[in-house]
Amino acid sequence: MDVLLIPGFWLDATAWDPVVPAIEAAGHTPKPITLPGLAPADPEVGLRDQIDHVVGLVDAADGPVVLVGHSGGGAVAHGVVDARPDRVAKAIYVDSGPLGHGGVINDEFEAEDGMVPLPNRMVFDDETVADMDDAVWAAFEARAIPIPAKVATEKQVLSDPRRYDVPVTVITCEMSEQTLRELITAGHPYVAELAKIRDYEILELPTGHWPMFTKPENLTRFLVASLPG
After folding, report:
1. Closest residue by Cα to residue 13 from 22, 24, 4, 23
2. pLDDT by residue (tens digit) across 191-226?
3. Rg (CA), the chain
4. What is the pLDDT of residues 1-46, one digit of tens each?
């Protein structure tokens, strides 16, 4: 089965290099993605354009696929689930979750000429950059690619309630499983879309927001265990 690996902000397909061999060894076909708008830079690309790009990959696959979305890539993944609920066997969200209709990923980043560069490390809270020592952060900075501001600020548009039938795994890193479940129980808007999904599980991987850099072996183990048998 094709496993479409959707990176988060400022990352391209190579962010998934640590997990690709294990997915292959598990008998699946990993397909890391560089989303449109990054290379070359294109400030006209929005969230819908990125969703449509991945929908095209789903349509080209021989059968059902698994979607893995990290961070902002989770919004892309959920848009694809909505567009092709009958073609997605499972969605896996890495320190992310399904973005509901009308939501935006993040409209607080500062843009330069329509593109959002990686902010200074000091912008992020301690939970976000946990386990990222100076060397890991420097390597992230060196590979970071500005993203189109429209991707971060364009509203999610969803229409097919069958998206709630697609099984989901959430790998939570910055937030504990207990905290996430408490938010769901309290009806917090942050998890309103996740709460509507009929079959979801939550796996806790305590680290910062970029586990492919800070705890790649743990992330790999969680991903492989979450893939359909």
Report:
1. 4
2. 999 999 999 999 999 999 999 999 999 999 999 999
3. 16
4. 999 999 999 999 999 999 999 999 999 999 999 999 999 999 999 9
The dihedral over CA atoms of 35, 40, 46, 50, expressed in degrees to the nearest 10, equals -20
Q: Comparing C-alpha atoms, which of 74, 61, 84, 60 is closest to residue 170?
A: 74
Give the pLDDT mean for 165-180. Answer: 97
Residues of the chain with pLDDT > 90, as a percent, come to 100
103: exposed, middle or buried (Cβ count in 10 Å: 0-12, 13-18, 19+): middle
Domain layout of the chain by residue ranges: 2-226
Distance CA 93, CA 209 (A): 12
Residue 125, both tokens: 């809270």
Q: Which DSSP symbol is given to 173?
A: S
Q: Where are the alpha helices (DSSP H) in the chain?
A: 20-25, 47-60, 73-83, 134-143, 149-153, 177-186, 192-196, 211-214, 216-226
For residues 97-117, give the mean pLDDT: 96
The CATH classification of domain 2-226, taken from the options 3.20.20.80, 3.40.50.1820, 3.40.630.30, 3.40.190.10:
3.40.50.1820
